[in-house]
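Step 1: inspect the first sequence and its tokens.
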Amino acid sequence: MMPDMKPLISIDARMIAHSGIGTYLRNILPYLAESDTMSLELLGDPSLFERLNLSRLNFNIRPVSSPIYSLKEHYEIPRAMSKSSKLLWVPHFNIPWLYKGRLAVTIHDILPMEQEFSSPLKRLYTLLFLKKIESQAEVVFTDSQFTADRLKAYHLLQGEKKLVITPLGINSAWLNFQPGPRPHTNPYLLYVGNIKPHKNLKTLLKAHSLLSNAPDLILVGKKSGFIQGDQETISLATNNPKVHFTGEIPISDETLSQYYRHAEAMIFPSLYEGFGLPPLEAMASGCPCIVSDIAVLKESYHDSACFYSPPLCEKALAQKIQAVLENPDLRQNLRQNGLQKAISSTWEKAAQMISQEFLRVCS
């Protein structure tokens, strides 16, 4: 490559408005757009990029309408890419099967491979894609050492494969949001996340029911999501007058920050994560966090930023919550240590590592 020629990188950005992967893209892309060493094109819905204010950044836009996990995506993405593109980056394992060029992939977690959380058909489907990634990708990014280790446990991405760990971060705006009105009148505990079995909401709901003088419990999400849960979870969530759902909150970090800021504590009871980003958002908002004592969250947050609880013991979780509610010094320590963790965790670090790998692959 000539010194004055910048490589063109194509980015599958169809999931830009999603939670999780969408949050990842919305925070990484502005840093990549600042690069003067590469050119970038986004693949996806141009009207969505316009609504999210990404069209103002230094990207070319290539329309792609195919949904994720569709047959159409496998041929539409290669056709939509510019002929001069040197690399395709896919921020999920759903790579286009008919694309034959250089490939970079981000694997946030391998939950669909884990037997306790997935069906045999989902495991087979995911394995086929991971094997394809193993044979074709020039570089694979993961959010944590935990996910890298789980890939290796399945004998994937072994040998010479380039595996780069890029921990997630916090947008600096989270540290600068001003206090606003309380989003809920009564004192409350907060849960932020999807409503899926690995999120372990049943344990949180049981723990909440054990609290003496329990504050309200706010679940950020739609009540209708519980129709896929088991009957006990549905009953705990819908028959307790102190459990409240926000409904869908529009994509607004500032709105969500007010929920964190005014909460007594944020509870993150997951059984499995690839990183676990909501606690970092809570820490940036000055909210004490109680999280599951699982390997990936210990890796992401270490010992002092969170209060840890065994993930399947509702009595232990209730005791941890009660301790935070009754101990002002403990709450203050969690706030201070959490804020320091948030300040030191930036998206810029991940973006720099990703950018460096793009240039390495294209050189």
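Step 2: inspect the second sequence and its tokens, then contrast the two.
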Amino acid sequence: MAGKVEFWFEFASTYSYLSAMRVENEAAKRGVEVVWRPFLLGPIFAAQGWNNSPFNIYPAKGRYMWRDMERRAAALGLNFQRPEGFPQNSLLAARAATAALYEDWGKEFCRKIYQAQFVEGRDISQPDVVADCVVSAGGIDQITMHQAYSNSHKELLRANVEEAQAKGIFGAPSFTVCAELFWGDDRLEEALDWALKV
């Protein structure tokens, strides 16, 4: 591999959905390795004084985002529907991802979570939805769900959040290449190209 990019994603993030569905293909074109890093935006937003998504706090921004998501998803050939509640509670899914990403089906699990939420309109806070995504990705639901509830994977996720904060990450998706930070789905290609320079 010519370089490496860390892909920081939050399952409740609309634009992270777009990146998750295409980052591997774009990276393969360049010979770049992608390291998937699940984290939570709640603590990041709280540190900025927000108790909700900025897309809910600022209605005009929210209206723009939903329309922009429709346009971008269509341009990328991705299905998209607005979920019933936004943002969804992504804690359990993120904990499950910290376990799943040690497996060869882990990235597919992450994509299944995004599809469940933003294509099928399912509630990813529900254990049965997360378990279904494990199975459809190729894992064993009882094992991964046990890991998701374990203290070790709670701590792994907490450590990811702390590392994201230390790196100056303030939104999702974000991409880090060494000390460089790229924020937003529209910076995905730029981040991957940067990895070829270092």
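Step 3: confirm your contrast with the notes below.
The first helix runs from residue 14 to 20. The mean pLDDT is 96.
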